[in-house]
Amino acid sequence: MHQIYLDVSKLEPPQPMTEIITALAQLHDCQYLKVFHRREPFPLYAKLIDAGWCYHCECLAEHQFHIYIYRPIMQGKFDHAKQQGQL
Asked: Whole-model pTM?
């Protein structure tokens, strides 16, 4: 698994969603997207599910979130990396 990092924390809506969707379109099979955001992007989640993506959100602190977005085929590898602290 190879991480692609995207910081959208300083962008105003709807730019974060646009940047995330654009980045996802460029991912290869062995890659996942790690997004740094200032809020949890609930409207994005429905779009991800509809498009067949998996996601995991971690709250780091107030106004600091990491959202991991990956293909369903990578679920096992993602879970393993998360358990090993490799994300």
From this structure: 0.94
